[in-house]
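Re-running the complex after MR caught last week's input typo. The corrected sequence lines follow. Everything else is unchanged.
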Amino acid sequence: MPDTHTAPKPAPKSEGRVARRQRRNRAALIAAAREIMAEKGVDAATMLEIAERADVGAGTVYNYFKSKDELAVAVLESLMHELAMRIETVTDTFGDPAQVYAFGIRTVLDTATTDPRWKQMLPRSEVIADALFRTMGPFAIRDLNNAVAAGRFRVTDPALVWRLTCHAIIGMSLAITEGRQEADSKVPIIARLLCMAGIDGEGADELAARSLPDLPPAPVERN
Amino acid sequence: MPDTHTAPKPAPKSEGRVARRQRRNRAALIAAAREIMAEKGVDAATMLEIAERADVGAGTVYNYFKSKDELAVAVLESLMHELAMRIETVTDTFGDPAQVYAFGIRTVLDTATTDPRWKQMLPRSEVIADALFRTMGPFAIRDLNNAVAAGRFRVTDPALVWRLTCHAIIGMSLAITEGRQEADSKVPIIARLLCMAGIDGEGADELAARSLPDLPPAPVERN
DNA sequence: GCAATAAAATGAATGTTCGTCAACTTTGAG
DNA sequence: CTCAAAGTTGACGAACATTCATTTTATTGC
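Corrected-run output:
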């Protein structure tokens, strides 16, 4: 009698213990991966060590992330989301929309070359650039559009400009951290990237040279 | 009697068998790696298979290249050097020095997104971008300087602009081959990259839209 | 409560690959 | 011809991502 009256898909009444544990595990895994990857770099961080620090079995990681790369992407996205939030709290006081965009890319460049959690990810340039494009894209594209509306920039395809900028920022960050590019060339780098947004050379130089307000401190790591 | 009259460093009279074999081995290894990496990608190409196709023992590869990465870089450099040579044969007929630069970056973008030997390397963005910077840098920087002298571009640090351009080109090439970026956005990509060289938007658009002469065919693979 | 069932966690085993090394071969000067 | 230095070899060790059969945990109908 296969026609028993068992509910085939029991409506998930409210959040059960499973869902709570899953959220804890996912967060713990990302936090552990973040720490270990920041300490030793993406490649040197082994899945076993990450699993141990998150206090789960080695195989469990694969219930949450299909591969090590996918886990690394999740880590990156969490870092970037956090940075985007911190940037937001500062830029909404700016009068010049072009400066909002300039501050954003300048901050990403500074963070990528300074924060060890970012630095250790840089060798995976293509992954990090793509994550940057996706995660901070909505903010950056909005800022570009604002600056265009204000007559400061000239851009027909903001997504294209943003993608070009992402690859350039990450590539230059890696070059700087590896010493192939002088660290004090950050201002000219920003100026040239602003040129891609359709501002002339003098305007770009001036914008890139403006002094920057401080970011709010990063939220403390939760244990 | 340590003072025997043995020449401590016997002047290499002429090229001996060792030197000849070494040149053959190095060339064979690069050729084999080129083929296999083009077929299967850098990661999927195993050192053993490369050694076998080059007809040397597995350990011998490490007499010539410290690591798999170093071998991959050598392959890239050979590809890029070849492309630079082919570009040279075309551009020296151009009247406008800005067009020489534009043609160069356009050709690199086209080749990277089209030639399977390049395409398979793209996932190693950071390596390929750096190789591009080094290998084609002398040409690109010379072209930039010429265009500046002709009043077409405005650049204070050509190496910086070239490095930014390298990372952007390679990143966009990968995005195109993976379908994350439409392939028909190549012209606007080039236009935006030209903006970084200090030309205004209209000039960049016009330069990027010019039709391109064909390259001479690639030299045939030697067996 | 209590089975019955489904979902998730586990960790030992697997398969792969890079790079090393001790033994072996080739080279070429004396 | 002799022999030491240079070059080659392929088997091997270590490391690591991923898999999967088994065990543990949670949920639900009764």
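None of the earlier attempt is carried over here. The two ends of chain A are 52 Å apart (CA to CA). Residues 6, 18, 21-22, 25, 48, 51, 56-60, 63 of chain A lie near DNA strand C (CB under 10 Å from a C1').
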